[in-house]
Amino acid sequence: MPYVSNLEPKFDGITRQHPIIHLDTIDSTNSHARTLLTTTTPPPHLTTIIADHQSAGRGRLGRSWITTRHGALTATTLLRLPSPLPNEAPAWCLHATALAIRDALAPILRPHAHTVTTKWPNDVLIDGERKICGILAEDLGQTHGSHYLAIGYGVNIIMDANARPAPHATALSLEGDEEAQHSPLTRRATLLDAILNGIDARFRALQAAQWDPTSSGLADEAQRHCVTLGQQVALPHAHSSAPEAQTSPMKYGRALAIDRSGALIVEREDGTHSLITTGDVLLPHEYHPRPSSDS
Question: Tell me, what is one Gene Ontology molecular-function annotation carried by this entry (predicted)?
Answer without folding.
Answer: biotin--[biotin carboxyl-carrier protein] ligase activity
